[in-house]
Amino acid sequence: MLAALSQPISLTAVLPELLLVAGGCVAMLVGLSNRASLRERTPWVALAALILGLVFARLGTGPGADGIIQIQSGLAFDNLADYVRLSTLVLGIVILLVAWLDPSDDERGEFFAMLLFSLTGLMLVGPAANLLILFLAIEVVSIPTYVMVIISRRDRRSIESGTKYFYLGALSAAMTAYGFSFLYGVAGSATLDAAAIERVTEALGSPGTLPHALATIGILVSITGLLFKIAAVPLHWYVADVYQGASSPVAGMLGFVPKFAGVVAIMKIVSLTGWNTVDGGLFWMLWLAAALSMTVGNVLALRQNSIKRMLAFSGVAHAGYMLLGIMAGPGHDSLVGDGTAAVLFYVVVYGIANLGAFALLGLLQVRGAPAETVDDVTGLLRRYPGLALLMALSMLALMGLPPTTGFWGKMSLFGSGLTRAAQAGENANWVIALVVIAAVNSAIGAAYYLRVIAAVLLAEKDETAEPAPREAQYMGAMMCGFLTLVFTFYPTILLGAGFNASLNMRDQAVGFMASERPAPPELADAADEAHAEQAAVPPF
Amino acid sequence: MTTPGDYAIIAVLIVTAISICAGIMVATHIIGPKRHGRVKDMPYESGVDPVHDARQRFNVRFYLVAVLFLVFDVEIIFLYPWAVLFPSLDQPEAASAYAGTVGDLANLGYTNGFFLASIGIFFTLLTIGFIYEWRKGIFRWD
């Protein structure tokens, strides 16, 4: 316990999170006001909290700048924490804009409070350096999302999907907690520091002993529970029903917030093994989950007529690509070989593109009901060319067509997989096989994305969907398109940030890859390398 | 520092409680008179005759009251240890003698102001929850 408290708690370190919680409380009370004019201001309160949080997160000293982890009562403010917090706050603002007019008048307070609480949880997943804090942070992410799914629509279906999501989420949380208890037993402390990594790797390095069995069970069970959060096989069945039952903005949020939390949490658990992901149970688990997620997700998405269900199953496939990056792990000190940087990049650009698609679906109305099927958005180009192009851009980014963000993400993910294959020993061919499966799946995925693009851009229809007069939602959709364009032309901004964010994970992997790794890089060098990378890769 | 011997008194308590319960149940079973009849076999409902099956739909308000009760119950439970420790937190020397988190925090130089602020944040959050419940009309029965 003393080790966990070796640094004094500084409330200023978590000031952005505290601001979000305070904003959530105020939003809850404002949303209950008697005056309708005041109730309408609820999203402004949330926006103010997010912007203030962004300012303070940016002004903060960023203790991880020197790469040293300072564990303050279970929180370590390293580069990863910085990356998670900033991308959460920026995307949180976009999510807020997209969901601005989504909740009904009497449930605004709860809705925006829950949104802020969920984002707070995500911001705490980044710095979490203790199994307990990590578990609590994941729950703070999840529980508000259950409520948001239910209150996002006045519909029996939303209640059904929210209840489903809640029970399955509780099941997965129980699995995660059970796995964490094994890890606590093996590591001897809940703190995720170098000592814990040493003890877990030692246990994993001695097959046939009890600690080996316990550590393996702990790692596998906790990651299985977390697969629910990123909607990967085998815990992916809820995803289509939940996305369809929730309103479009909330479904778009579900593609980013829980996925990001799950990915970061899985990385933290895999870190405990010293990133030895290419042999033993962990390798086969990640391999199977990745391969099945891609294949099952894409095949099921092919068969959907509802765009929401299609995007939900495509999210399963994207979770598979992310698992490939996690299996690749932090690689050499170059951008393309680093699986963790690629995953951190991919989860954000996927979140943006996915949110953009859902924002447009929520915006478009067909005879008063939100658009949902491919038929609903057919022939959009002639009446609303801007919206049609935004929809096409989101779909192209999700598809991974060069040179969109999705392509840069997939390129770095597959590249990291191939880099890792070189170190995988006897499993090298299996790693390469997984990259091939991923490449084939990208081609399968193109089919259903192109169907939507063709319907939007090429097909003709007399009665097209009408956009609802919702300025904030327009703005949110446009911001998604803008961010996608920015990261399309300057992917190295975000990739470089992701590379810096995985600095500590590279250090944790150093014991395993000591022979291949030169001296630790300076931060400035990493940024330089990012530029060098940009020069090396032909833009188009 | 606690030793396993310190827990002996808890073991004595558990054993005593279980044996008293078991003893009373066994004793009534053996020495109690057994008379059966329609009235005697009826479930005891505080002297009121049961009218129908207990498994039926009941108003969701009871659930809300139960949740409300739980919230305040937890609040009180949380408050007790804090209230017991707080006077000693006034003197850092005394506080640092406590094992566990409180002692660690005191050793790090946290004063009672920190602990007062902590409970203040806790109460503020609960009060906001209370205001929320009030505004949502949970306290209105009809």
Q: Mind explaining what this structure looks like?
A:
- With 540 residues, chain A is mainly alpha-helical.
- Chain A has 23 helices and five strands.
- Chain A has helices spanning 15-30, 36-39, 42-59, 79-98, 108-125, 131-151, 156-187, 194-204, 210-229, 238-245, 248-254, 257-271, 280-302, 307-328, 339-363, 380-383, 385-399, 405-421, 428-457, 471-489, 491-501, 503-508, 523-536, and strands at 71-72, 75-76, 364-366, 369-370, 466-467.
- With 142 residues, chain B is mainly alpha-helical.
- Chain B has a single domain (4-135), classed as Methane Monooxygenase Hydroxylase, Chain G, domain 1, CATH 1.20.58.
- Chain B is built from five helices and no strands.
- Chain B has helices at 8-31, 60-89, 92-96, 101-107, 112-135.
- The longest helix of chain B has 30 residues, at 60-89.
- The A-B interface holds A 1-2, 5, 8, 25, 28-29, 32, 109 and B 100-101, 104-105, 108-110, 125, 128, 131-132, 135-136.
